[in-house]
Every structure is written in structure tokens, then in C-alpha cells.
Amino acid sequence: MKFLSIIPFLFTLILLFSCSEKSIDQSTTDSFSIEYEKFTLDNGLEVILHVDKSDPIVAVATMMHVGSNREKPGKTGFAHFFEHMSFNDSENVPVGANRKMIPEWGGSRNGGTWSDGTVYYEVVPKDAFEKILWIDSDRFGYMINTVTEAALEREKQVVKNEKRQRVDNAPYGYTDEIIRKNLYPEGHPYSWTVIGSLPDLQAATLDDVKEFYHKYYGAGNASLVIAGDIDVEETKKLVNKWFGEIPKGPEVEPLKPMPVTLTETKSLSFADNFAKLPELRMVFPSVEQYNKDEYALQVLGQLLSGSKKSPLYKTVVEEKKLAPRVSSYNNSNELAGEFVLRVRANEGVPLDEVKAAIDEGLKRFEVSGFTDNELQRIKAELETDLYYGVATVLNKAFQLVQDNEFGNDPGYITKRAKYLQEISREDVMRVYNTYIKGKHFVMTSVVPAASPQLAVSGATEATVWQEEITAMKANEQVAQGEEAEYEKTPSKYDRSEPPFGDAPLFKMPTVWESAADNGMKILGIENNELPIVTFNISIPGGHLLDPADKSGLAVFTADLMNEGTASKTSAELEEAIGLLGSSISVDGSLEEINISGSCLSRNFTPTMALVEEMLLQPRWDEADFERLKQEWKTGLKGREANPNAIAALNFNTLIYGPDHIAGMPTSGNLETAENVTLEDVKEYYKFLKPGGASLKVVGDIDKATVNKAVESLVNNWKGEGVKSSNLEVTNATDGSTLYFIDVPNAKQSVLYIGSLALSATDPDAAKLSFANEILGGGSSGRLFQTLRIEKGYTYGAYSRIPDRTITAPFTITSSVRANATLPSLEIIQKMIQDYGSGFTEEDVALTKNKVVKQNTRAYESLNAKLGILTHIDKFGKPKNFIDLEQQQLMEMTLKDFKDTIDKYMQEDKMIYVVVGDRATQLEEVKKLGKKVVELDIFGNEIGALQGGEL
User: Fold this and answer.
1) Where are the beta strands (DSSP E) in 182-301?
2) Which among 233, 597, 604, 291 is positioned nearest to 435, based on CA atoms?
3) Tens-place pLDDT, residues 647-697
4) Which CATH entry fits the domain spanning 16-255: 3.40.250.10, 3.30.70.100, 3.40.50.150, 3.30.830.10?
5) CA-to-CA distance for 412 and 292, rounded, in angstroms?
6) 106-110: long-range contacts at Cβ-Cβ below 8 A with a sequence spacing of 24 or more?
7) 3-state secondary structure (DSSP) of residue 115
8) Can you name the residues that pair with 13 across neighbouring β-strands?
9) At what angle do helices 765-776 and 894-904 cross, to 10 degrees?
10) Among residues 255, 628, 294, 266, which one has the least CA distance to residue 435?
């Protein structure tokens, strides 16, 4: 569950809604409609239905019109906390079913809370549709009687762990709290954070939970959207059955907009325990959501910083060289809005210089304004965003439910399209002058704790409440507890679990393939639902071809290829791509260089012409090289502040060894970055040949059109590819060793546990993936169920194996609260040791059902379909590999599962990496009985300890 908005603001140029029971209708590239039907139940619940039969899946989203803006000081974080409580038990659903059963049906589920609302959502195969209505309606209308003290205390720990992970243990995590306290007056509904404070969360009582439910969780304060492969008339009957008896609830008085006006500019500084780079934010009060000025402010944000021609980019990044990037954006909520300028500067840069550069950029905007081309580029990009924003049934559901509940019209996006179309130069300058020019703002200087002098001069030191790490308290020892005793709410319907519908069958999409004359393979999947195309050119090699002393060269070379062509500066290239409404990005990874992008289908040919230009005519500008190299080093320095990155990078080095290139970060380190020259980049570029490369294309385009569009690229790009000699991998580190890395005052410990397993080309690869489902496959896995649901030690715990050509590690990861580090390690250790011997026939059946059902929804999006093509190309899989792997799964016996577990999940061969607070946790982890080795954050050994002895 998330304490932030999961509803993206969708920009549009052309979008028409109509009311009927048809799915998407796209008659031309210039018209587009998402059709829906709306009705209201007798209890006031507003229901919107949208039919989309392109995949045998259904999305359900329930929007409650209550967020943190309905809380009271002293009870902050309660809306988000209640969202967590809602996922526990309900009257007619088995204990724990909400979190466990939905994944087992092949579905996914989650929720989100932000300042103004709370949303619950699921996506399931269509045979589980009525089951979702059963479980979702029971959560909505029949959960309050089942809440117990044990559930309350357990969920407190989970939410507190979420806050530690997202806020307390993260660089810049307290910035939002500082801004809210100073931007909004005391008592304003936005003057506290959505996640709230730990003392407030700990003080929550059962009476608080019940009061909140009865006040805000009535049917009259909600909207329900169902989108997907449904029959409208049958769905209406089912909705009335499952949701129609939920009480309407008391009238919830709507909140009127509460914009704020600052009487002075406030400058605050904060010394951040985790931050390695200084960050400046300037936040101006703006307008509430659905105010027409919101749209002009969105465009203003793009014009100020959204391109290499924008004034803030010019002054902050290009000319002054103070930071790798600058961002500006408007964020409007139900009651008020914020226009934000944000810069995370290079290491050691005084924020006074950043502030001066921002002021200079704003002055330049006032004098020079912007060109018609810039406005045209933004609108072209917004058209493409429109289609990608509704490319899945869940995204369609989100848009409909958001606009219905907060805009009072599920088709409000039509008006939004009109407003965006009408935005003029005068509108942009008007909102700039109204909300930004000469106005007061809140400014935060968040700086490394060791460098307080980098803050803006004269800033007042901000204070926030910070948790002290202590030994585990009695109230932190939580468990499932007894079930509540209550009388079931009477109903005229049978509210027991409904049966599955007819089982949907996964249909492997048709894959076409052709071989280009230059040795490049071309694969595609035609999908005509939307007028968009997603593509990827993959060139083998990547980081595996890096020299050890220049680690990160492949990634850096790819990054520099985005910075213009022989005939276009980086700004001109960016504009050319943007005017098509396209995106193109060259990126490096462990095993390849990828040129990825998206575009309107009508613009595929000119987009590929720009891809060809980027690939064959790189600019190699010395100034771009120097700027990008500084950006690279800034990113590497910032990485030192991230405990999760520290754990992952050191685990990788320990698994592969420091002498294997795979054991070094794909983005290198500060030492190797310093070694890279422009000549090195040019030498690496010579590896980028079509022999062994592949182009994958998914979307509204056929094989003939693709082949014609890339004729020039095929004719002009020649050469044999280079094969890596770094494919052989052996275990670099013995198991049974625990490596501890100190991050002082860390509120959580990051755990990485695992050992080398296999390559994605190995015949056992699918078997290992199947064998992992019960252990760590999502929220229904034992790791999640035990460490989060039963114990409340973590926000999440998972296990996985990445798809790689070289041997990849099987890995277990989690972030646990600091004082639960040892018990969490003990649980994981025992779970791995017992996993194979404890695997049962019931587990076999559950795995088979879960995986087969998941496949019905796993390949809905264009990117998921692109992933199918990647597996066929990169790992040499047949075009029907998903069908074959399903067949392999169905033929697996209990012995096959046990043999796979015993072969690849041996606990005594696994290494343990713990990143946490040494002062309180080092002595604790020694009690696990393993050899303990201390490392610094860069992987250098500090000292070795044995079994807790010095």
C-alpha cells in the first residue's frame, strides 16, 4: 500500500467520452474515445463500467473520498493507516484471504492513499471476477466488526516500517514534512504528511478505527469502476448483489478549496543523515485540482525546465554546471496546489549559487519567453501520453474513477482536453505572473549532515521528530492473535465465496520475424488497440565489455549517444523527437546496449530515421562529454546515500567477485568514472554493430511497414558484433558468511541473501521460477506472509532470480525495522533450510494454478509483449515458449520441485549482506552463528569476526 497518489494526471489533446457499453473505438488517428456507462445504486454508490475484451481480465477500482485531509492534529496518518487495516479481515472472507487468495487466483491487488482520497484496486483473470466483487465488497462494507487489538497492533508496525523505509531511512525523506509545516498554516488539512508521525500512529485505538470507518466509509462517499472483459447487464446484477446492501453512511460535507497565501518567503535548512548531495526546493502556492489554471501551470513547468532549451536548464545545468538536471512542475490537489522548482546539485555546490542560477533563469523566461515550437512540442508529447496513459484496463479504471469522484464526471477528461488545446502564450505568462513572479515561497536546503554550510545563507534550521533506535519493545512483539467475536451482518444474499467462472485461456500473441541483410534480427507483435508503437533495438555486450578500470563505460557511452547527432545539437535532437510526440532513449545495461522508444504509429518512420541518426552519427561533443561526466559522478555520489543500493552493489560484488566485470557496478564508481575519456567512448562505440543485434516492435503496425521503415538503417549499419568473453561465472564467495555494512542511525536494516543459481538459458530456469512462487512470489509468498503479516517486521519481503545470459543469483531481499534484524534473519534462515523438505503436494497444486492464472494478465501491456520478444531473441526461446513452459509446469511432480529447491536454494551456500546501524545491530547479528565480516559502504573489509567473537 502506498501513501501517495497512484492516479497519474493524464494530459490529453483529443479525447472524447460517450456513454454506451462498447470498448475503445479508434476510427482515425485524430479521434479517440473510451466509452463507459454510469449508474447509481440505491445506497448512493456511483458505478462506472467500461468494456474491453482485448484480454480475458477485469480491473476493479474503488475510490473512497477520504484522505489525510480529513484527519485531525494528533491523529495524523490515519487515512493511510485505515487503508492498511482494510486489507485485513472481513465478515464473510477467511482470515488473511485478501492478501493471500487474490495472488493465488492469478490476480494483483493494492491500494493507495494521498491527501484527498484512498483507492483500492485489483486486476484478475475474468474467471475470478465475481470472487473479486465478493472480496472487495466485503472489505468495503463488512470489515469493521472483525478488527481486533492484535490486528491493530500488527498493522501499526507494518505502517511504521513503511514510514521508516520511505521517509526515515531515505535521503531527503523529511523534506515533504518540512515543506508542509511551513507552506500551510497550522490546522490546514495539508499541513501534515500523508504517512503521519510515528507517535500518532502508535496512539491509534480501536475506537479511532471504528469512528473513521462509520464516518467516511459509506457507499455514498465512494465510486466504483469496473473495466475489462465483462458483460454489462450481468455486471449490473452482480454489483447490486455484492455492493447494494452496504450502508450509505452519513453525508460527508465536501471540502471547499483552501488555497494559501504566504505573507513572507520562508527559507529552511536541514542536515540530512543520509544525503550526500545538497538539494534545493522552492515551493509556490498555486491552485486546486480542476481549476483551469492547473493546465497552464502544467505547461509552464515543462517550458521552464522540460527541455535542453528551457531557461532553467540553460542557467543551472548547461552554463553554471551546478547540477545534472532541474525540474519544475505543478502539483494540484483537491484543496490547494503547489508549483515546485527542484534541483539536486553536484557534490559540494553551495545552494546560494543554485538559487542565483534559478533567479537568472526565471528572469530570462520573463524577457525571452518561449517559441511556438516549444509549445507545439509539449502538445505533441501530450498526445502520445494520452494513449499510453490508458493502455491498460487498470489505467482506464483509474482515470474514470478519479474524474468521477473528484471531478463529478467520469468523462471530465474531455474538458481537460479542451482546456489544454486552448492554452495560449498569454495563458502561460498570466499564470507565471499570477503565481510565480514576485511571489513568496517556501525554500528548503537539505544538505549532507557533514556540510551544513552548503545551505542557502540565512536559512532557519528546520526540526523534525526522529525515532530513536531501541531494543524491541513489548508492544512491537505482534502476532495474528485471536479472531474477533461478532454476529454477522444480516443479508438477503448468500455472501459465501462464489465459484470460479469459466477458465480463461492465455493466448500466445502471434510473433512475426524477419532477418535483415545486415545481420540484425527483427521481431514484432501487431496490436491494434491503440495508435501507438513501442520498440527496442538491443545490441549485445553492454557492461560485460567494459575494461575493469573503466567500469561504467558502456552505460556512459549510451548516455552520451542521447546528446545530439552530427547535424543536431542535443537540444535540437530533443526538439525533433518531441515534435513527433515520440521518445527515444539509449541506455546501457549489464549485457547489452538498448535503444528504446515509443511513438504514435503514424510517426514510426520518422522516429526510426532519428534512431538511425543517433546510432550512426553520434555527436561526441566535448562540452556534452564533460557535462555528462559530471552528472555521472554526481549520481554516483548520490548513490552512497541509499542503503538499498549499498546492499545490492556489495551483494553483487561478493557473488561475482571483484575481478569479474559483473561484480562491478554497471554504472561504475567514482574511480573508474574518472578514468573514462572521450576517446574511450569512441572506442567502445565500435562494438555497436548489427551482427547479433535485434529490433523488437510491438503495437499498431504491421511487418511490412516496419521493414520498410528500417530499410535505410539496415543499408547503412554494417558489421559483425563482438561477443563477450565474460560469460563464465563461478561462486566467488563461500556461503555461511554474513557481511555487515554500517549506515549510522539507520532506522531499518536492508537484507540481501542468496547465491549464484543459473542462467535464463538453462533448461532449469523456468523450474526455479516456479519453485520460488511459494517462498517469495509476491504478497502470498511465505516471506511476505511471515515477516510482514504475522510479525510486522517489514513492509515487504521477496525472493527472485533475474533473467540474465550469464549465471544469475537467487536472491532474498527485505528491509526490516532495526530492532527486528536478528529475528528476521533467523526466520529467513530457517525458512530456506526447511523449504525443500516441507514442500507439499498442496504447494505443487497452488503453484500450478497461480502461474497459469497469472499468465492471463501478465502480458497485457505493450512493454510486457516487448518482454516476450526479448525472451525469444535474447535467450533463444521458441515463439510459443510461454505455452511450453506452462506445459512444463503442469508436468512437474513434487519430486521435481524438491530437486529444484535442493539444487538451487541451499542455505549453507548463501551469503548474507546486512546494511544497518552498527552501534545497535552488529552484536545482534553475531548471534546468528555465522562468520561475520564488516565492510565499508564500498566493500572494503574492516575486520573479520567468528561466531560473535572478536
Assistant:
1) 222-228, 266-272, 279-286
2) 291
3) 999 999 999 999 999 999 999 999 999 999 999 999 999 999 999 999 999
4) 3.30.830.10
5) 12
6) 106/849, 106/850, 106/851, 106/852, 106/853, 106/854, 106/855, 106/856, 106/857, 107/132, 107/853, 107/857, 108/778, 108/857, 109/779, 110/1, 110/2
7) coil
8) none
9) 90
10) 294
Q: Match 518482454 to its residue by C-alpha cell.
A: 867
Torsion sign, CA atoms 599, 602, 606, 608: positive
* Contact present, 512 and 173 (Cβ < 8 Å): no
For the stretch 159-207, pLDDT in tens is: 888 888 888 888 999 999 999 999 999 999 999 999 998 888 888 899 9
Q: Which three cell numbers stand for residue 512?
A: 512475426
Could you tell me the three cell numbers for 387?
494513449
Per DSSP, what are the bridge partners of residue 443? Answer: 267, 282
Residue 479: predicted pLDDT: 64
Residue 19 CB neighbour total at 10 angstroms? 11
Q: Which residues pair with 63 in a beta bridge?
A: 119, 223
Do residues 445 and 182 touch, judged by C-beta distance below 8 A?
no
Judged by DSSP in three states, 427 sits in helix
Cα angle value 847/848/851 (rounded, 5°): 80
The torsion angles phi and psi of 36, rounded to 5 degrees, stand at -145, 165
Q: So what's the pLDDT on residue 202?
A: 87
Of 92, 80, 85, the closest CA to residue 119 belongs to: 80
Q: Please name which of 328, 320, 330, 347 lies closest in space to residue 281, comparing C-alpha atoms.
A: 328
Which residues of the chain are modeled with pLDDT < 70?
1-33, 472-481, 725-726, 731-732, 943-950
- Could you say which of 3.40.50.300, 3.30.830.10, 1.20.1330.10, 3.50.50.60 is the CATH number of the domain covering 737-946? 3.30.830.10
**What integer pLDDT is reported at residue 381 of this predicted model?**
87
Domain ranges of the chain: 16-255, 518-651+660-716, 737-946
Return d(Cα 256, Cα 254) in angstroms, integer.
6
Radius of gyration of the chain (CA): 28
Supply the pLDDT for residue 417: 74
For residue 155, the model assigns a pLDDT of 85
Fold of 518-651+660-716: Cytochrome Bc1 Complex; Chain A, domain 1 (3.30.830)
Assigned C-alpha cell, 797:
519481503
Q: How does pLDDT run across 400-439, given as a tens digit for each residue?
A: 999 999 999 998 877 777 787 789 999 999 999 999 999 9
Strand spans (E) along 879-935: 911-916, 931-935
What Cα–Cα distance (Å) separates residue 162 from each residue in 2, 370, 704, 796?
Answer: 9, 43, 50, 9
> SS3 letters for 780-848?
HCHHHHHHHHHCCCEEEEEEECCCCCCCEEEEEEEEEEHHHHHHHHHHHHHHHHHHCCCCCHHHHHHHH
